[in-house]
Write a structure and sequence with these properties.
Elements lengths: L5 E7 L4 H12 L6 E7 L4 H7 L5 E4 L2 E4 L4 H16 L7 H44 L3 H11 L10 E4 L18 H5 L6 H6 L2 E2 L3 E7 H20 L8 H22 L13 H42 L1
Parallel strand pairs: 1-2
Antiparallel strand pairs: 1-3, 3-4, 5-7, 6-7
Length: 321
């Protein structure tokens, strides 16, 4: 008598003659090699249907996988091999560990279906919180506002002349060098716009408004990721991944040119022409970068989650049996 009965995970679908024949052969072999059968209808799970649509029946017997066509001899040999392999192991797993594994697989299965919602919510939270800082400043709650500025400080330069402002006369106060029609940062605040440390620490006042805790480009990047993530939810598997060359050309080159030339112009040792990007350019290049990154990555993540769902569905079927 064997300590563990084999479980056969049987992927099937309605009106499948090969499936019915294979199931009959399995039942005939019950006396020779006792086993349980977990029937999984692939048409009830889009991930399984995508994976197995043209190859059912598919059987998973221990470490072995059989695909149609499957003879009775194949079944008997595989059942006996799986039984021998299972019997040779010291398969003594406690009930607590089994329950924990089942719960973990259930959580993973749920996440594989809801990953986009989770990611969109995280991106939205990351994007929305910096706007809470000027709202709190306006309400006179300076201490909690300072916490937000501090949290985001390692992730962004927070230069006031490259950031959005709320509750002020203008939405932005770029440097004079940017050449916009807006009142410059130096003119609005009386501060030297060449002193970057001062501009980083400047939070605003009742007249100019209060600074958002991340810069204009970061707002555009994460805003682009969030909006593209919402759009991706409507197209899912219909959207093919963007080729890497297109990602480089459309997503990387514009933001690299805009930010790179600005950076080079700020290095005194280089004789690079002085240049300051505008709020509009920062928004366009940042937003494009965010959208293109979603187009590159999310279709791959979706495919990976489909495969994960199929794998975990099989594990859950075994655990249920």
């Amino acid at each position: 008598m064997h300590s563990q009965m084999l479980n056969v995970v049987f992927y099937t679908r309605a009106n499948c003659e090969l499936c019915e024949q294979t199931l009959a052969d399995l039942n005939d072999l019950q006396e020779a090699v006792p086993h349980t059968i977990s029937l999984v209808d692939i048409d009830l799970d889009p991930a399984l249907r995508k994976k197995y649509q043209d190859i059912v029946p598919v059987l998973e017997i221990g470490a072995y996988t059989l695909k149609a066509p499957i003879s009775k001899m194949d079944l008997e040999v595989t059942l006996k091999s799986a039984r021998q392999k299972t019997s040779s192991k010291a398969a003594s797993v406690g009930k607590k560990k089994t329950r924990s594994g089942y719960r973990l697989n259930k959580m993973l299965h749920t996440f594989s279906k809801r990953w986009l919602l989770v990611l969109n919510l995280l991106v939205f939270a990351y994007l929305a919180l910096p706007f809470g800082a000027p709202v709190l400043m306006k309400a006179g709650l300076n201490r909690p506002a300072s916490w937000i500025y501090t949290i985001y400080s390692p992730m962004c330069h927070q230069l006031a002349f490259r950031s959005w402002f709320l509750f002020g006369e203008q939405a932005a106060y770029p440097r004079e060098l940017a050449g916009t029609s807006l009142t410059s940062f130096q003119e609005a605040t009386g501060l030297n716009e060449s002193e970057f440390f001062t501009a980083r620490n400047y939070l605003g006042n009742e007249t100019v408004g209060y600074k958002v805790a991340i810069c204009e480009r970061d707002v555009a990047i994460y805003g682009g990721i969030f909006m593209a993530g919402l759009f991706f939810g409507m197209v899912r598997t219909r959207l093919k991944p963007l080729p890497v060359w297109a990602w480089l050309l459309i997503g990387i080159v514009p933001i690299a040119l805009d930010g790179g030339t600005q950076l080079l112009s700020s290095i005194p040792l280089l004789s690079f022409p002085a240049r300051e990007s505008t709020p509009l350019l920062r928004t366009l290049t940042g937003g494009l970068f965010g959208v293109i990154n979603v187009w590159l990555a999310y279709p791959h993540v979706e495919q990976s989650m489909i495969e994960t769902r199929a794998l975990v569905s099989a594990k859950l079927a075994r655990a249920t049996a």
